Task: structure prediction
Amino acid sequence: MRDEYDIENLNPRENPYAKKLKKQITINIDNETIEYFKTLANQTGIPYQTLINLYLSDCALHKKTLQIGWQ
Result:
């Protein structure tokens, strides 16, 4: 390794994964929903938190809206 590096003349490039960065949050999800995604995780081999993220990402991508009917 060098003792010093010329940082000013490096060829900086954008991080190709910057758009996919994740942010840790705290969210309350009911037990039935978590169990559903855990069962799905066992069937697919994909971690349940990843499945939840994939589902929510798909909802955001397709601009799905929630239809709520209070009875």
